[in-house]
Amino acid sequence: MPVEFLGMIGVKPSESNAAMHIIGGGIDHDYLCRFSQAHEDSDFDGVLVGYTSGSADGLHVAQAAAACTDRIKFLIAHRPGFVAPTLAARKFATLDYFTGGRVSVHIITGGHDAEQQRDGDWKGHDERYRRTDEYLTILRRTWEHDANGGEPFDFEGEFYQVVGQNPEVSPIQDGGIPLYFGGASDIAFEIGVKHADVYMMWGEPRASIASTIERVQAGAATYGRMPRLSVSFRPIIAPTESQAWEKAERYLAAVTKLAKQPLDFRPQSRGSQRLLEFASQGDVHDERLWMPIAGATGAAGNSSALVGTPEQVAESILRYIDLGVSTILIRGFDPLPDAIDYGRELIPLVKAEVARREGAAARQSAAVAD
User: Fold this and answer.
1) 274 sits in which H/E element
2) Dist CA 118 CA 286 (whole Å)
3) How many Å apart are CA 190 and CA 168, to the nearest integer?
4) From CA 327, how far away is CA 6, in angstroms rounded?
């Protein structure tokens, strides 16, 4: 399967020289366009549009960015529970139509109570995931309404009761809008393998990723499904390996200075807890998976780095692809210049090698058939 590269766009330039988060702080439309165009020019396949309780609305951000670009796709982060699932389904289907099928949805159920409560959600962790299960069931049924005969449908659950839903808009993508899903707790895993088209993981050592992949594939098989797999990194590249490590240390110093969590901070998210566990076991895992920034920030989001020359980082990414990963989400600490550098130095190396392997496999298959 061809590799898919995703970046991440924000709506305002970062005020830090080591940006951990890029989605808050108001809106700069010109910057959003330049940022989105840079990803398209750098041969990213898509970009993540993030979500927080205070940031600009992702659907509108994606719509504005789509107007500035021609082909790049938009993975829109979405928290179930704040909009009725039938309405959300129509919103995404409408945007899918107007963007020519460039929409996918990243389901983030919510890993921190305080963040949820800022938007008025007081449900606990497991309760939120049970709600997500119902939400995604209704979302799918709304999107697949025409394919299932076009008859109005009802739904009766713990959180949602729907009677006579009869949508008049559907996604234009064949197979509907793809659902990406992230979560590392046991209940998140159960819901993810049931619904996800792409199961997302943060950058962990390869042995851990391989174990998670095995678990995802086994769990999804019970539903007759085979989701694709994604892993996320913060690549730090430079012309020489020593320069890359020096650059990484500069980022760490800047991030540590800005970190706001107390030293005894313990995130609620199981995914963040896992990254902190790996950070406590050592700074570097495998050849160049670097964890100190995760440790310094409480692993709040994508915070594990791959450090080295473009060739070395490409080699590391290819080893994750060897495990079965087909989607790579990357973003830098200097977001706009890094997106340009990735397109010039890193993405072509990985895509060329994947294409070479696919060509060799196709030739071998043809030779066997002959």
Assistant:
1) helix 270-281
2) 39
3) 31
4) 7
Structure tokens at 369: 């058939």
Question: Do the bridges between strand 198-202 and strand 179-182 make them parallel or antiparallel, or are there none, so unpaired?
Answer: parallel
- Assigned fold of 4-369: TIM Barrel (3.20.20)
Cα distance between residue 84 and residue 97, in whole Å: 20
Give residue 264's pLDDT band: very low, low, confident or very high (50, 70, 90): very low
Q: What is the mean pLDDT of residues 2-21?
A: 88
For residue 185, CA distances in Å to 14, 192, 210, 289 come to 31, 10, 17, 22
Amino acid (1-letter code) at residue 31: Y
Token pair 């996918």 is at which residue? 104
CA distance 81 to 135: 8
Q: What residue spans of 42-169 are helical by DSSP H? A: 58-67, 85-98, 113-117, 125-143
| 132 alpha-carbon distance from chain centroid | 17
Interatomic CA distance for residues 4 and 198, integer angstroms: 11
Total-model pTM: 0.94
Q: What sign results for the dihedral spanned by CA atoms 339, 342, 343, 347?
A: negative
C-alpha span between 353 and 321 (Å, rounded) = 11
Are the CB atoms for 35 and 9 separated by under 8 Å?
yes
Pairing of strands 153-156, 161-165: antiparallel
Reply yes or no on whether the pLDDT at 144 is more than 90: yes
| Average pLDDT rounded to a whole number, residues 245-258 | 92
CA distance between the termini of the chain: 23
CA angle, 38 then 40 then 42, to 5°:
70
**Calpha distance 102→67 (Å, rounded):** 12
Of 349, 316, 339, 358, give the one whose Cα is nearest residue 38. 339
DSSP for residue 28: -
- Residue 78: what are its φ and ψ, rounded to 5°? -145, 130
How confident is the prediction for the chain on average, in pLDDT?
92
